[in-house]
Amino acid sequence: MRPEQERVRIAKLEELRKLGIDPYPADLYEVNTTSAEIKTECAHLNAGEKVEEGKYKQVSVAGRLMGRRIQGKAGFAELQDPEGRVQIYMNRDELCPGEDKSYYNNVYKKLIDLGDILGVKGYVFKTQTGELSIWVTEYTLLTKAIKPLPQPKTDEDGKVYDAFTDPELRYRQRYVDLIVNPKVRDTFIKRTKLMNTMREYLNEKGYLEVETPILQPLYGGAAARPFKTHHNTLDMTLYLRIANELYLKRLIVGGYDGVYEFSKDFRNEGMSRFHNPEFTQIELYVAYKDYEWMMNLVEEMVEKVALALHGTTEVQVGEHVINFQRPWKRYTMYGAIQHFTGIDVSGMDEAQLRATCDKLEIKVDDSMAKGKLIDEIFGEKCEPFLIQPTFITDYPVEMSPLAKKHRTEPGLVERFEAIANGKEICNSFSELNDPLDQRERFEEQVNLGKRGDDEAMTLDEDFLRALEYGMPPTAGLGIGIDRLSMIMTNSPTIQEVLFFPQMKPEKQPVYATEEDYKAIGIREELIPIIQELGYFEIEKLKVVKATKLHQDVSGMRKKMKLKEVKNPSLEEVEGWLA
RNA sequence: GAUUUCUUAGCUCAGUUGGUAGAGCAUCUCCCUUUUAAGGAGAGGGUCCUGGGUUCGAGCCCCAGAGGAAUCACCA
Predict the structure, then answer these.
(1) How far apart, in Å, are the Cα atoms of A153 and each of A5, A62, A129, A184, A345?
(2) Which residue gives the smallest C-alpha to C1' distance to B1?
(3) Which of A73, A147, A252, A498 has its CA 20 to 30 A from that of A91?
(4) Does residue A364 reach within 7 angstroms of strand B, measured from its CB?
């Protein structure tokens, strides 16, 4: 049973059809401008002045009706198009020059609702209060909305009332969120602009955007648990990729000297405000470069992104202003740990590191090896305090099985991460291209797996074979697009930068059909009463006491004023439940 | 997974020691030809998340469950 408001709108739908107005017309609607264009191009008008000639004397705009202020024989309304809102002026005698005023009185005032999609034609003018508006000479209903929208209102100071804020509803019905919350729409425009800026930057440098498999027989390139699926024809297990690193490196072996991919990756792990099971990364590999070179690229590219989105390198994130202007601060990992804890961990063995973790009150478990322990210390004591963009370089070899050993520092690899707002935004290294070293590292990972680390990497023979043909020295980079978008749009959760974040499934009750009700002997005219009482499922109905149901139905019949409907007898009700 | 907390009208929210369920906006009717959180008059609209319990009586107290949120754990 639909709520009354929706029933009213469906009735209006029929009313419109009777008047010969198709509420869902098929023909295209020619639009020649937008709300934003009108606001910039007609700003010169004085209050009370109208456009006398040119394009803005005959504008055509389409959008959703979002606000309406009717004043008898005329009224104002707001039309929302992708660029924003523009006020429209509807005048009865303008729209209905003849005797018949029904197109205004009946259709516009009664049959058109907030949320409907309209096309309007007319001329631009400025009202006496100085608001640019369209004086409508003709309007067309383009789509009738059956469900009412939430109605947030904004006052002069930009304060929002009755905002549509429930996160569950906002994420499940993102379309509604996008209609009524302009900031949300802007966030996603910024996200796309962010990716486009990167794409343009990398294309300009001549790198090739590529696509690699999402369904992979072996997952690799990162440490994470995968989603597992099955291919019927080949009767084999496939995994959704957790990274695309190993495939992109194969392409470097193949002779491209710069490849990148924006990729959806999938990790079967916990969800939080920083984690969604599917997320987006960009990975970039450039031949004949090293991680030092890549750091400079990251600085330049991210600075460009900030400028493209905000026109400045300074971005407000929560309570901080983060400045992405080059150059960024750089620490080695050991240097950062020394800086924040005063402890030099560079020469420590596993036992000493465990003791240090105890001293710093960091929880560790037995499956953690040396590299993991150092990472824990860094993650606990350093990372959260790095607000301004900072590079952390030179990680322990144990936690970076795909990175090249440091050219001068034994036990370390040539790897860096960029941290901003206390979170990693990118990960990069001089790629390991020694096939024998790579095999050993994979074997260490396999041992870690046996020790209980369920995120240890698997050994990929084909990848090793590729390396054995020779991969040139290569710098690789991965940037978390969602995390970077969060920072660049000042969004506190990853859900705010994903159109459709993963949610628990929505509970959908199985509604009984009219036939289901009739099947147990309920008269057709009683069905609306049963539904009004909330018995949408036969199973729910069956467990009610006959006397209560009999009372309820009779009572509801009276309440619904269904005088022509005859109340069921108690025996009749007992018959339904038998 | 743990802890805390929330769930009342289409939306945002009140709801007193347990005593007939409220407001604004939205909807419907009427008035209003430059308003803009338009305004004025009136009306309709509720499974108080669900199921038990205590009580003469539960939106409120107790128990269980569902869903959401936050924090933690997990997560390079």
Answers:
(1) 20, 21, 19, 16, 57
(2) A270
(3) A147
(4) no
Residue A396: beta bridge partners? A412
Strand B nucleotides, any atom under 7 Å to a protein CB: 1, 10-13, 24-29, 31-39, 44-45, 47, 66-76
Pairing of strands A74-81, A84-91: antiparallel
A351-374 b/e with 16+ CB inside 10 Å = b? eebbebbeeeeeeeeeebbbbbbb
Q: What is the pTM of this model?
A: 0.87
The answer to whether the C-beta of A367 is closer than 7 A to strand B is no
Side chain identity at A503, as an amino acid letter? Answer: M
Quote the distance between the C-alpha of residue A55 and its chain's center: 37
- Rounded Cα gap, residues A292 and A465, in angstroms: 28
> Is 90 exceeded by the pLDDT of residue A231?
yes
All residues at 6 or more sequence positions from A352 whose CB lies less than 8 Å from its CB, including other chains: A345
Q: Which amino acid is at A109?
A: K
Torsion of CA A423, A428, A434, A440, to 10 degrees: 10
Strand B closer than 7 A to residue A150 Cβ: yes
With a CB cutoff of 8 Å and minimum separation 6, the contacts of A397 are: A371, A403, A405, A411, A412, A413, A441
CA of A157 to C1' of B39 (A): 20
Protein residue at shortest CA distance from C1' of B12: A162
Across chain A, how many H-helices and E-strands are there? 20, 20
**Quick one: which residue's CA is nearest to B72's C1'?**
A272
Contact (CB, 8 A) for A303 and A324: yes
Can you tell me the distance from the alpha carbon of A313 to that of A402, in angstroms, rounded to the nearest whole number?
Answer: 33
A167 CA from B67 C1′ (Å):
12
Residues 478-507 of chain A sitting with CB below 7 angstroms of strand B: 493, 495, 503-504, 507
**What is the predicted pLDDT for the residue at A528?**
64
Q: CA A499 – C1' B70 distance (Å)?
A: 22
How confident is the model over A110-142, as pLDDT tens digits? 999 999 999 999 999 999 999 999 999 999 999
Q: Could you say which DSSP state residue A493 is in? A: S
Cβ-count burial of A530 within 10 angstroms (0-12 exposed, 13-18 middle, 19+ buried)?
A: buried
**pLDDT class of A305 with cuts at 50, 70, 90:** very high
| Residue for token pair 């607000």 | A387
Nearest CA to A259 out of A196, A191, A194, A205 is that of A205
Are A420 and A386 spatial neighbours (Cβ–Cβ below 8 Å)? yes
Q: Which whole number is the average pLDDT over A91-107? A: 91
Q: Are A442 and A457 a contacting pair, CB within 8 Å?
A: yes
d(CA A58, CA A135): 10
> Which residue places its CA closest to the C1' of nucleotide B9?
A3
How much is the ipTM here? 0.88
Distance CA A20, CA A311 (A): 51
